[in-house]
Specification:
Elements lengths: L1 E5 L5 H13 L3 E6 L11 E4 L13 H8 L2 H5 L7 H16 L3 E3 L5 H13 L2 E7 L6 E6 L15 H12 L15 H16 L9 H21 L10 E6 L6 H4 L8 H10 L5 E6 L10 H9 L3 E3 L6 H4 L5 E4 L4 H7 L4 E3 L11 E3 L3 H14 L7 H13 L2 E2 L14 H16 L6
Parallel strand pairs: 1-2, 1-4, 2-3, 4-5, 7-8, 7-10, 8-9, 10-11, 11-12
Antiparallel strand pairs: 5-6, 6-13
Helix pairs in contact: 1-16, 2-5, 4-5, 6-15
């Protein structure tokens, strides 16, 4: 059995103790390393791809070009050249052909991971992205390739009382996904991280590491945009005669929307399209992400200012305060979908996921036609209502399709490499490897 892990900065050192456990099971471990500063210490095969230093010949590939369009370096950090995608694609292809892994494990975020996924699809190699399943907390799923489709799961069934308690905690905000509770790294950790990234950049890693000057400018602009947003945003919205549609902004750059929801990664355009599809008696309420990043732009603020049907909320406004008066929620791939299901709040999504199995969570692919129809159903009281038993079945399905364990990295959460968590994660890896049915 051969397994290939994909380096992803600090996440690599989360995978390292897991890989060690797998080695103890007789599994051959290899690493594909894009940034050599994050090379693991584990005795194993390591394939470090040299940074390109010559002219790269390109034979256009439509699937590679589609990955270029969603790359964060090009979209956010003003990267000009994209020919390195072709260089890395060929290098990754050669590595896969040499190793012939049975499984590849990595994220679906950075360009070299997405290129590995593309290669794996073409070679029929299973690529799995271990990632938090959001709810139930403290659990994760193995998502196939660059999708939100989970593979297998522990199959653990919750007792009805445990399921009901879990649902109640989600509704009352007593339970939040693991990634929402992370403490910021210490000042020393931040300094060391910045120094390591700067070292990476100086020595040639300019493909996942932004230009430091451009990064500083973007951070300054981000802070200014957040201030401008809050200056015109509302601290509260009173329920009036208008129909209120809520869109919670998703943080960017982030795989949740840049990869899994890539068709809608331009959130300003999405908001503009949503508003254009609304009846006149409907208002779109836009709630910022508590950890706003680059998704708040001057263009989005200008759109909100000039459009009477858009109401934007201040960063101080919590979901608890706004959700009760909302008539309908719309999201691309946000966690709000699960929270809305358990809060019995009508929700529509722009990307189809397991959440759409629940009748109160409707997938739409045509804003113009479907959104107006759904709004009318909600207004008439004809929107599907989820029952208590259906919610119990749903939380159980999320539980069964996931495994116990917290996916993170030692930089943002040191507890992720504690012995107990590594034991749980390694157990899940072994389970998914041993129980994989290639026919499915």
């Amino acid at each position: 059995m051969k397994i290939l892990f994909i380096e992803n900065r600090h996440k690599t050192f989360f995978y390292e103790p897991i890989a060690r456990r797998l080695q103890e099971e007789g599994i051959e471990i290899s690493w594909l390393i894009q940034n050599k500063e994050f090379t693991p210490n584990l005795e194993s095969k390591k394939y470090c791809i040299p940074y390109p230093n010559t002219k790269i010949d390109i034979e256009l590939d439509t699937e590679i070009e589609s990955l270029i369009k969603i790359d964060r370096q090009l979209n956010y950090f003003k990267q000009k050249d994209s020919s390195y995608f072709y260089y890395y694609y060929e290098k990754i292809k050669q590595i896969l052909e040499e190793i012939k892994p049975d499984f590849v494990f990595g994220e679906s975020t950075a360009f070299h991971e997405l290129l590995t996924i593309l290669n794996c699809k073409r070679k029929d190699i299973l690529y799995l992205n271990p990632s938090s399943c959001r709810y139930p907390k403290g659990r994760f799923s193995f998502y196939k390739y660059d999708t939100l489709t989970p593979l297998n799961g522990s199959g653990e069934v919750l007792e009805n009382t445990a399921a009901e308690k879990m649902i109640s905690q989600i509704v009352n905000r007593n339970s939040v996904p693991d990634y929402m509770k992370l403490k910021p790294p210490s000042k020393i950790s931040k300094i060391n991280d910045k120094a390591l990234k700067l070292k990476s950049y100086v020595f040639g890693e300019k493909y996942n590491t932004p230009n430091p000057i451009i990064k500083l400018r973007l951070e300054k602009q981000k802070k200014q945009n957040i201030i401008k947003w809050d200056e015109v945003a509302k601290q509260s919205i009173k329920k009036g005669y208008d129909f209120l549609l809520l869109y919670p902004l998703q943080m960017q750059p982030e795989a949740n929307i840049d990869v899994w929801g890539k068709a809608y990664r331009d959130q300003t355009k999405l908001i503009e399209d949503v508003v254009a599809s609304l009846p006149k008696d409907c208002k779109l309420v836009v709630k910022p992400n508590p950890k706003s990043n680059y998704e708040i732009s001057e263009n989005l603020i200008c759109l909100a200012k000039k459009h009477q049907q858009i109401e934007i909320l201040h960063h101080n406004v919590k979901m608890d305060n706004i959700l009760p008066i909302i008539d309908l929620v719309i999201t691309v791939t946000g966690t709000i979908a699960i929270e809305s299901i358990f809060s019995k709040k009508p929700i529509v999504t722009m990307v189809k996921t397991i959440n759409n199995k629940i009748k109160s969570c409707i997938y739409i692919n045509s804003l113009n036609v479907e959104l107006k129809t759904i709004i009318k159903k909600v207004q008439k009281g004809d929107f599907p209502r989820v029952t208590k038993q259906e919610m119990i079945i749903f939380i159980n399905e999320l539980n069964q399709l996931s495994y116990k364990g917290k996916i993170s990295d030692p930089y943002t959460d040191a507890s992720c490499i504690h012995q107990e968590n590594i034991n749980d994660i390694a157990k899940a890896f072994i389970s998914v490897i041993n129980n994989y049915d290639r026919k499915n």
